[in-house]
Fold these 4 entries.
Entry 1:
Amino acid sequence: MPRFKTILVTGGAGYIGSHCVVDLLNAGHDVIAIDNFANAVGDEEGSPALKRAEQITGKNIVFYEADLLNKPQINDIFDKHPIDCVIHFAALKAVGESMQQPLLYYQNNLLGMLNLLEIMRSHECYQMVFSSSCTVYGEPEYLPITETHPTGSITNVYGRTKYFIEEMLKDLSAADEKWNIISLRYFNPVGAHPSGLIGEDPTKEFTNLMPFMAQVALGKKPVLTVFGNDYNTPDGTGIRDYIHVMDLASGHVAALNFLGSNQVRLKVYNLGTGRGVSVKELVEVFERVTKTKIPLKYVDRRLGDITAMWADASLAKEELGWSTKLTIEEMCKYKTGCGIIKPFNITQ
C-alpha cells in the first residue's frame, strides 16, 4: 500500500485533475476530490468526469463541490477526512483571460492557495504536490529549459500567479522544516484517457489548441485561429512541448511516491517530453491521424505568448523514475464533444 493513503485533489473534476484521479485510484490511493466547476463541467449529480473515472477504475471517489475561497467549507472537509497529502490543481488557467482579468486571477489563485496552506497546517498535513507551469520561466534564455533556468521574467498574469505561489512555497518550506512539497512545472498537456470516457471539455472561449482543433474538424467551428505566424521559428508559428495528459498524471503518482520516502522541503521538476513541436506541425499530425482537414486563420500574436519552449525533464527521470511514453500521434486520437471524449471519428 502507498504511504499516503488519502489524497485530497483540488480541481479534481478538471481536465488534468480527473486524469490524475484515475492514476491515483489505480495506484491504491483513496481520493477526496473538490471542484467549484470554474473550469470543469458539473451537473445536478456532481462531476460527470469523476463519475466516469469511477467507471474506468471500478473504485469510489468522495467528491465535494467546494471553493478554496470559502475557508470554512474547506476546513470542514479536512475535519471529516484524515487527509495525508494534497495535490493542488485548482486554479484559473487561461493565459488570454488572465491578461484581461488580472484581479480575478490574483484573487482566485493566490488567495485560494493561502487558504489551503493555512488549513493544511492547522490539520498537520504538510505534504503537497503543486500544479505549477513552465510559464514561470518567461521567454527562454536557453533551450531545452532545465529547472535551474531563471524564473520571474514572466509574460502573462497566469504565469505570475504560479511564480508567486512558488515563491510563497519557498518561504514557507524555509521557515518550517515539516513542509514537504514538490512543484511540478507542466509544459503543454493534450490528449485524453484511452478509454475515451474522460478528456478535455472546455467551459470557456479561452480554450486550448487541441479541443479547438477537434471542434473545427467536427464542423462546429469554421477555422482554427492561430495566434501569430511571424515568430522566429522554422515555420513562423510558436513552438511548445506537448505532453500527453496520461503521462502528466503518472508524474503526479511518481511525485507522491518520492515524497513518501524523502523529506525535500521544496523540490521542483519539469514535466515534458523534451521535444518542441510547432502549432503548424501539431495541426499536420492531427490532420494525418484523424484524416481531416483543418483550415487555418492566422491573426496577430496573443499578448503574453512566447516564441518557443520545451523541457529538459532529465531530473524527473533521474530522481522520480518518470518519463513520457506517449507520442504526438497518440495525443491526437481523441476528441471532445458533448461533455464526453470519444475515439475521434468525423462521422460522429
Entry 2:
Amino acid sequence: MLKKYMRDPSLIILTTNIGIKDNQSYEEISVEILDRQVRKSRTKEVASVKVLWRNRFVEEATWEAEEDMKKIYPHLFEPGEIPNQGTNSFLGTF
C-alpha cells in the first residue's frame, strides 16, 4: 500500500553549487604491446603495434603507429618487451 509523501524542503539539493567541467574526457593509458607488424607497399614500410589499453579487453586492442607510440610511451619499448618481434608483411596493391 502506498503512503502519501510529505515534502521536506530541507532535503532539496541546489544544482548551482555543483561544479561540472565542460571537458568530460579522460586519457587512455596503454598497458602492453601485444603484437607488431610491418606493412610494405611499393615505396615504403609502415610499422604498427597492437596496443592493449587500461580498462579494456584484449579483443578491444587497437593497432597504432609504432613511431607515435614510441614517442608517447617509451617505457613499453624497452628491450625484450615486444612479443612476436618478427614482421608480418602485408603486400598491398596501390
Entry 3:
Amino acid sequence: METADLARARLNSDIALAATGDRAAFARIYQSTSHKLFGIVVRMLHDREAAEEVLQEVYLKIWDRAGSFEPGRASPITWMATIARNSAIDSLRRRDRRRDEPEAVEGAPDAADATDPDVRIGLVRCMDLLDEHQRQFIRSAFFEGYSYSELAHHAAVPLGTMKSWIRRGLERLRYCLDGE
C-alpha cells in the first residue's frame, strides 16, 4: 500500500512526464485517478453516460495542461479534481442552456427561414425597429445561444422581466414580418 506522500510524488512526476508527451505516464495518471475523478463528475451530473463523456474531456484537459501544473500551489489530485469539477459545471451549464433554448418560444425566428435572403432582409429591417435593449436581448438569445436566465443575470433584472421583454420584442417582430 502506497503512502499518501509517495502517491503524491508519483503523480507529480507522472504529470511532469505527461507534459513532455509521455503516454505511459499519462496512462498511470488515468489508472490511479480515474475512479476518484469519475466519482466527482457522476455525483455532480447524476448521469453516468454524461459523466463518462465529461471524464474524457477532463483527461484531455489534464493532458493539454500538464505543463502548467505547479506542484507548489496544489496537490496533483486537487488540481485534477478542480478540472473535473469545473468540467462538470460547464456540462451542467451547457445542459441548462439547451433546456432553456428560447427557440421553442412562439414567434421566434425560424433558423430555416433565416437562409432565405428575403426573410433575412425583412428580419434585419424589423430588428432595426426594436429598441436597442430588445434587439440585443433577442440577438443574444436566438443567435448567440444565451439562456433567458443568463441574460437576466447579466442585465440584473428578474427572469420574468427578461422573458417579458423578449416576448414583447418577438411580438413586434412577428407583427412587422407579417405586415410585409
Entry 4:
Amino acid sequence: MADVTYYVALPFALDDDGPVAREGTECTSAHAAIMRAEVLSRAEGHIGAVAFSRSGDPMLGEFSDAVLLRAFGDVPSDLSGL
C-alpha cells in the first residue's frame, strides 16, 4: 500500500500535572486541520490546540514523525509524542 497522509487537529486542556492532549480530530486536509485546531483552541476547557500531519503506511504501521502545521494558544513545546 502507498503512503497515506493523515491531518489531525489536537486540543489541549490543563490538569493538575500541566497541559494534556485530548481527543484528536482527523481532517481531510492541512487547511481543514488548521481551521479546526483554531476553533478547538478557543473551546471551553481547552488551553490551545495544534494541527499536524503524519505520513506512512497503515498496513505496516510505519509512520514518519509528526509535522507541526500550526499551534494555537498554550501548548507544550515538546510535541515529539504526537
